[in-house]
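Same chain as my last thread, 337 residues:
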Amino acid sequence: MTPFLPPETLPVVFAALMALSILAYVVLDGFDLGVGALLPLAGGEAERDRMVASIGPFWDANETWLVLGVGLLLVAFPTAHGMVLTALYLPVALMLMGLILRGVAFEFRAKAADAADKRRWDAAFIGGSLLTALTQGWMLGRYVLGFEEGFVALVFAAMSAIGVAIAYAFIGACWLIWRTEGDLQRRAVAWARVTLWGIALGILLVSLATPFASPRIFERWFSLPYVVLLAPLPLMTLALVGGLVALLRHMPLPGDALRRVPFWAATALFCLSFAGLAWSFFPYVVPERLTVWDAAAAPESLSIILAGALVVLPVILLYTVLAWRIFRGKAADLRYY
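reply #2:
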């Protein structure tokens, strides 16, 4: 098959599609992982049921974005896929265990014979959510430092793991502010107030570490004209954090006003952080080792894969939008069919 885009353009297109898939996964599965991590803080079984009900129509479909992102890495950048999976084999295996555990727990809590059995499945759901969040944070920390070995790199990965778990808890709390009401909504506001400082600290630490990952990234951050082009990212991040602090101090507002704003502001924080990482590492798909052009499959293969991706991606977007439209209101009582 003759490539229908220039061969040098195809790897960039696939890098953009993979980045879009990963960002969509981090935001969409991030909030339901966060809700799972917050489950132990609920005020009783009724609140736990309402929290689970708030993510019930979405959580399974959200994981499709992870499958798409990893699938694109495999088929479009097979060499990079091998290098990344070799470096992250154990955390990837643990992440898959966490995803399986929370999926099984979500289904089997509906079939619990009694309250004690249901609490055990709730504990499994919480454990699976935390394991998934922590392993993803660990992988981010390892990636940012280019899979370096040593004590400092491992400490940074551990801090990144905790930071990502807190970030997911924050966006999960913001989701609950939007989708719940009453005492649970007030609890969610309190959780968001606390975890906001955690995500702000995490963004700061990653921002301090990233430019020192390599001389190339340092130059891209601090030399002209790059420093001017990059300046809007930290400024907008600071403005969002400040606005969230001010807003959450007064929530919930009368008439449930502005209930959606914390979630979309959290989404914007995730997007800005992702943009900063993309700015730092592009064109490398494996930091300082493989560029997107070095790692890409043959142009003919990429053309065939792109044709399939242009069919699959709109379908995923369509059913994601449809689910959000159908279940756009407040979470109702939990029902299993």
